[in-house]
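19302_t:CDS:1 structure dump, as promised
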Amino acid sequence: MLNNQLTINILRELNSRLAFKITELRKENVEIPELRKNFSKSWKLEQKQSKTNEKNNFIVKSDDDVKKINQSLVCKAGYSVSNTTSTKIKNSNDTNISDTTSNSDVVSEQIENISNNITDSDSYQEKDS
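structure tokens r here:
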């Protein structure tokens, strides 16, 4: 009988250890879907950030290209580009991207003057011919 009682006590202890381990595993299993959800949100935010960065880089490059074109048009006609303003574009991960753009009114006026000068010089050359 003593032997049976000892076996019963050992089995009860093993049972309580296993019950405790099962409880711990259930808690971990509850956390897994939560972690998956957080990971999914984080991944989606990174994708949006990447697309935003690509768009910002494209905009800055396009603005630089437009500026170069305007400067080359203005410089070919002997004008200088003036009244340039420097602005900062802040993207969503808080890094600054420098962007220098020309005052649109001044550039438009200069391009119009260049266009008029080219037209005047063409008509002048036609008169000489």
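The longest helix spans residues 2-76.
lmk if u need the other ones
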